[in-house]
TrEMBL record:
It comes from Actinacidiphila epipremni. It comes from the Bacteria. Residues 147-185 form the Zinc finger CGNR domain. Signal peptide: none annotated. PANTHER family: BLL6575 PROTEIN (PTHR35525). This is CGNR zinc finger domain-containing protein.
Amino acid sequence: MRYIAGVHPDDWSARHSVAAMARRTAALVNALAPEAPDPRGIAALLRAHGETGPLDLTAADVTRMRRAAALLREVFAAAGTGTAADALNRLLREHTGPLRLTSHGAGTPWHPHLDRDDDAPWDEWFLASSCLALTVLLWNTQEPPGRICAARSCGDVFVAQGRGPERRYCSRRCATRERVAAHRRARAAAVPPA
Ligand SMILES: [Zn+2]
Protein backbone atom coordinates (compact mmCIF):
# COMPACT_ATOMS: atom_id res chain seq x y z
CA MET A 1 0.00 0.00 0.00
CA ARG A 2 1.14 3.49 -0.78
CA TYR A 3 1.08 6.31 1.73
CA ILE A 4 -0.38 9.48 0.29
CA ALA A 5 0.22 12.92 1.78
CA GLY A 6 1.03 11.41 5.18
CA VAL A 7 -2.33 9.64 5.43
CA HIS A 8 -2.37 5.89 5.88
CA PRO A 9 -4.76 4.42 3.30
CA ASP A 10 -6.64 2.51 6.02
CA ASP A 11 -7.40 5.74 7.89
CA TRP A 12 -8.50 7.33 4.68
CA SER A 13 -10.79 4.51 3.64
CA ALA A 14 -12.36 4.33 7.10
CA ARG A 15 -13.13 8.06 7.01
CA HIS A 16 -14.40 7.92 3.45
CA SER A 17 -16.27 4.64 3.56
CA VAL A 18 -19.73 4.77 2.06
CA ALA A 19 -21.31 4.32 5.49
CA ALA A 20 -19.24 7.19 6.93
CA MET A 21 -20.21 9.43 4.00
CA ALA A 22 -23.89 8.55 4.47
CA ARG A 23 -23.64 9.37 8.21
CA ARG A 24 -22.08 12.71 7.31
CA THR A 25 -25.00 13.33 4.94
CA ALA A 26 -27.54 12.65 7.70
CA ALA A 27 -25.66 14.86 10.18
CA LEU A 28 -25.55 17.73 7.68
CA VAL A 29 -29.21 17.38 6.64
CA ASN A 30 -30.15 17.66 10.35
CA ALA A 31 -27.76 20.54 11.09
CA LEU A 32 -29.01 22.44 8.03
CA ALA A 33 -32.70 22.06 8.95
CA PRO A 34 -33.00 25.23 11.13
CA GLU A 35 -33.64 28.58 9.45
CA ALA A 36 -30.17 30.14 9.64
CA PRO A 37 -27.48 27.72 10.81
CA ASP A 38 -24.15 29.22 11.94
CA PRO A 39 -21.56 28.60 9.18
CA ARG A 40 -18.98 27.89 11.93
CA GLY A 41 -21.15 25.09 13.27
CA ILE A 42 -21.47 23.56 9.80
CA ALA A 43 -17.70 23.87 9.27
CA ALA A 44 -17.09 22.15 12.62
CA LEU A 45 -19.44 19.35 11.60
CA LEU A 46 -17.57 18.90 8.30
CA ARG A 47 -14.30 18.69 10.22
CA ALA A 48 -15.77 16.18 12.66
CA HIS A 49 -16.62 14.05 9.63
CA GLY A 50 -13.12 14.09 8.19
CA GLU A 51 -12.93 17.26 6.12
CA THR A 52 -9.43 18.78 6.25
CA GLY A 53 -7.84 21.92 4.90
CA PRO A 54 -9.22 25.46 4.85
CA LEU A 55 -12.99 25.65 5.37
CA ASP A 56 -14.10 29.12 4.35
CA LEU A 57 -17.86 28.56 4.56
CA THR A 58 -19.94 31.71 4.13
CA ALA A 59 -23.56 32.35 5.06
CA ALA A 60 -24.36 32.21 1.31
CA ASP A 61 -22.71 28.76 1.05
CA VAL A 62 -24.82 27.56 3.96
CA THR A 63 -28.01 28.95 2.41
CA ARG A 64 -27.29 26.96 -0.77
CA MET A 65 -26.38 23.89 1.28
CA ARG A 66 -29.79 24.14 3.00
CA ARG A 67 -31.46 23.78 -0.41
CA ALA A 68 -29.36 20.68 -1.10
CA ALA A 69 -30.31 19.31 2.34
CA ALA A 70 -34.01 19.79 1.58
CA LEU A 71 -33.58 17.81 -1.65
CA LEU A 72 -31.71 15.02 0.15
CA ARG A 73 -34.42 14.83 2.82
CA GLU A 74 -36.75 13.42 0.13
CA VAL A 75 -34.52 10.33 -0.07
CA PHE A 76 -34.77 9.83 3.72
CA ALA A 77 -38.53 10.41 3.59
CA ALA A 78 -39.07 7.59 1.06
CA ALA A 79 -40.98 4.70 2.62
CA GLY A 80 -39.65 1.93 0.41
CA THR A 81 -36.62 0.97 -1.66
CA GLY A 82 -38.36 1.80 -4.94
CA THR A 83 -39.41 5.28 -3.86
CA ALA A 84 -35.94 5.96 -2.41
CA ALA A 85 -34.43 4.87 -5.75
CA ASP A 86 -36.87 7.15 -7.61
CA ALA A 87 -35.89 10.09 -5.40
CA LEU A 88 -32.18 9.38 -5.93
CA ASN A 89 -32.63 8.97 -9.69
CA ARG A 90 -34.34 12.37 -9.82
CA LEU A 91 -31.42 14.00 -7.96
CA LEU A 92 -28.83 12.18 -10.09
CA ARG A 93 -30.59 13.31 -13.27
CA GLU A 94 -31.14 16.92 -12.29
CA HIS A 95 -28.36 17.85 -9.88
CA THR A 96 -25.16 15.85 -10.37
CA GLY A 97 -22.49 15.62 -13.04
CA PRO A 98 -21.27 12.38 -14.64
CA LEU A 99 -19.35 9.85 -12.56
CA ARG A 100 -15.62 10.60 -12.58
CA LEU A 101 -12.51 9.62 -10.64
CA THR A 102 -10.25 12.04 -8.79
CA SER A 103 -7.18 11.84 -6.56
CA HIS A 104 -7.35 15.59 -5.78
CA GLY A 105 -4.00 16.06 -7.51
CA ALA A 106 -2.48 12.93 -5.87
CA GLY A 107 -3.57 14.19 -2.43
CA THR A 108 -5.87 11.21 -1.79
CA PRO A 109 -6.42 7.71 -3.14
CA TRP A 110 -8.47 7.65 -6.36
CA HIS A 111 -12.17 7.72 -5.61
CA PRO A 112 -15.42 8.50 -7.42
CA HIS A 113 -17.07 11.94 -7.49
CA LEU A 114 -20.34 13.16 -9.00
CA ASP A 115 -19.70 16.90 -8.77
CA ARG A 116 -18.41 18.62 -11.91
CA ASP A 117 -14.92 19.33 -10.61
CA ASP A 118 -12.78 19.28 -7.48
CA ASP A 119 -13.35 23.00 -6.90
CA ALA A 120 -17.14 22.74 -7.08
CA PRO A 121 -19.06 24.94 -4.60
CA TRP A 122 -19.92 23.41 -1.21
CA ASP A 123 -23.58 22.79 -2.00
CA GLU A 124 -22.75 20.98 -5.25
CA TRP A 125 -20.15 18.86 -3.46
CA PHE A 126 -22.55 18.11 -0.58
CA LEU A 127 -25.41 17.04 -2.86
CA ALA A 128 -23.19 15.02 -5.22
CA SER A 129 -21.17 13.19 -2.55
CA SER A 130 -24.39 12.47 -0.61
CA CYS A 131 -26.15 11.09 -3.70
CA LEU A 132 -23.16 8.85 -4.37
CA ALA A 133 -23.07 7.46 -0.83
CA LEU A 134 -26.85 6.93 -0.60
CA THR A 135 -26.91 5.30 -4.04
CA VAL A 136 -24.17 2.80 -3.16
CA LEU A 137 -25.82 2.09 0.20
CA LEU A 138 -29.18 1.35 -1.47
CA TRP A 139 -27.39 -0.85 -4.03
CA ASN A 140 -25.59 -2.71 -1.26
CA THR A 141 -28.52 -3.32 1.09
CA GLN A 142 -31.46 -3.24 -1.36
CA GLU A 143 -33.21 -1.15 1.28
CA PRO A 144 -33.88 2.58 1.71
CA PRO A 145 -30.56 4.10 2.80
CA GLY A 146 -32.13 6.15 5.57
CA ARG A 147 -35.26 7.21 7.40
CA ILE A 148 -36.84 10.10 9.26
CA CYS A 149 -37.15 9.62 13.03
CA ALA A 150 -40.66 8.49 13.99
CA ALA A 151 -40.67 10.57 17.19
CA ARG A 152 -43.30 13.32 16.84
CA SER A 153 -41.12 16.16 18.04
CA CYS A 154 -37.88 15.11 16.31
CA GLY A 155 -37.82 15.09 12.49
CA ASP A 156 -34.12 14.18 12.27
CA VAL A 157 -32.95 11.88 9.50
CA PHE A 158 -30.69 8.92 10.18
CA VAL A 159 -28.89 6.22 8.22
CA ALA A 160 -30.69 2.88 8.48
CA GLN A 161 -27.79 0.54 8.93
CA GLY A 162 -27.35 -3.16 9.33
CA ARG A 163 -29.64 -6.11 9.70
CA GLY A 164 -31.99 -6.79 12.59
CA PRO A 165 -35.23 -5.11 13.56
CA GLU A 166 -36.12 -2.01 11.58
CA ARG A 167 -35.03 1.14 13.37
CA ARG A 168 -37.76 3.76 13.71
CA TYR A 169 -35.99 6.35 15.85
CA CYS A 170 -32.83 8.37 15.29
CA SER A 171 -31.58 7.72 18.81
CA ARG A 172 -32.19 5.87 22.03
CA ARG A 173 -33.36 9.16 23.51
CA CYS A 174 -36.17 9.52 20.95
CA ALA A 175 -37.19 5.86 21.34
CA THR A 176 -37.46 6.25 25.13
CA ARG A 177 -39.38 9.53 24.90
CA GLU A 178 -41.92 7.97 22.51
CA ARG A 179 -42.31 4.89 24.68
CA VAL A 180 -43.03 7.07 27.71
CA ALA A 181 -45.50 9.22 25.73
CA ALA A 182 -47.32 6.13 24.41
CA HIS A 183 -47.53 4.76 27.93
CA ARG A 184 -49.03 8.04 29.19
CA ARG A 185 -51.56 8.10 26.35
CA ALA A 186 -52.59 4.50 27.06
CA ARG A 187 -53.01 5.25 30.76
CA ALA A 188 -55.06 8.40 30.08
CA ALA A 189 -57.32 6.45 27.71
CA ALA A 190 -57.84 3.72 30.32
CA VAL A 191 -59.13 6.19 32.94
CA PRO A 192 -62.98 6.15 32.77
CA PRO A 193 -64.59 9.58 32.37
CA ALA A 194 -65.79 11.04 35.69
ZN1 LIG B 1 -35.31 11.41 16.85
